[in-house]
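Internal ticket - ligand job 316, NAP:
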Amino acid sequence: MAAKMTNLPKYITMESVRQVLKMADLIPVIEKAMGDFSKGEEGGVVQPVRTVVPVKEHNGVLFVMPGYSTTSGALVTKLVTRFRDRDKTCVAGPRSTVCYFDHTNGDLKSIMDGEVITSMRTAAASAVATKYLASKESKILCILGAGEQAGSHYQALHQICNFQEVRVWSRTISRAQKFAAEYKSTVCETAEEAAKDADVIVTVTMSTKPILEHSWVKPGAHVNCVGACRPDWQELSSELMQKSVVYVDSREAAMKESGDVLISKAEVYAEIGDLVNGTKEASRDKTTVFKSLGMAVEDVVSAKLVYDKYVQQNGE
Ligand SMILES: NC(=O)c1ccc[n+]([C@@H]2O[C@H](COP(=O)([O-])OP(=O)(O)OC[C@H]3O[C@@H](n4cnc5c(N)ncnc54)[C@H](OP(=O)(O)O)[C@@H]3O)[C@@H](O)[C@H]2O)c1
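stdout (C-alpha cells):
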C-alpha cells in the first residue's frame, strides 16, 4: 500500500513575507517574546547559543540559530550564510532562511525567507525599547546609517512616536540621500549634526569604532544601538555607555558579544524584558541606551506570525 502523502512544506518568498508581516502586528508579539525570555525557565523560551560553521576554503560561514517558544507554540531554526569574495572586500549575502516546524510533531511546515524577518524583528525590538524608554513627547528621530535596518527602524519607530522631524546620516552621503528619497527625512553631513537635540537616536551601521559621542546626545534622549555585534566592535563611545542607563535584550549575550558593553565596562541595568514584566524600572527621564544583539526567540515568534497570516490568506 502506498504511503500516505503528507503536505510539502510551504515555501514563503521574501515578497510574501513582506506582504503578510506588518509592523503593527509584530511589535506586540516581539514585546511578549522579550518578556518571556527575561522570565527565565518560567517564560518557556529555549534558545541555545548559535552554531557557527566556518567554510574556510571559500571564505564563508554558516550560522545555525534554533529556538523554541512554548508559550507561542513555535519551533524554528534560522540558517544564515555569509560568504566573501577572495579579496575579502565584497560580501555576498548574508542570506537568511527560516525553517518553521510543527512544534507538536516536528513536521517541517514551511521554509521562508529570513531577510525581511530579521530586518523587521530587529526594528520591532528597538520599538519596544523606545516605547518604554523614550520621552512620550519625542519629536526628533536621528538615524545613523542608511541601509536595510535604517529603513525598518524608520517604519517601526513611527509606530511608537509621533516624530515631527527625522534626520539621517551615513558614511557615504549618497546612501543617505537615497534613503531620504524613500523615507521622508533630512540628510545631515555629520553624525553630530544629525544627533543634535534628537529625542531618539538609532545607530544601524557596520562601523567597528564609535560613531556617536556622549557630548552630542541630548540629556534624557534614548539611543537604540543595533550594530557592533562583536566583542571588539563599538558604535557608541565608552563615555556615552558609562553615563547612560544601559538596557539589553539578553544580559548573557551582551556580556559575551557586545563590544559596546565589554570595552566600556558599562553596567548593564536590565533587560528590556524586565521592563515588559514590570520587574525593573524604565528610566524614561535619564539618557538610556538599548544595546541590541538580536535573539532567536524574535525569529521564532515572527516566523509563526508569518506562517499563520500566510495560511489565513492562502489556505492550508
Ligand atoms: N541587533 C540585531 O539584532 C541586528 C540584526 C541585524 C543586523 N544588525 C546589525 O545592524 C547593522 C546594520 O545592518 P544593515 O542590514 O542595515 O546593513 P547595511 O544595509 O549594509 O547598511 C550598513 C550601513 O552602515 C554604514 N557603514 C558601513 N561601514 C561603516 C563604517 N565603517 N562606519 C560607518 N558607517 C558604516 C553603511 O554606509 P556606507 O554606504 O558608507 O557603507 C550603511 O549606511 C549591522 O551592524 C548589522 O550587523 C543587528
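Auto-summary: The chain has two domains: 10-117+297-314, 134-294. Residues 1-5 have pLDDT under 50 and may be disordered.
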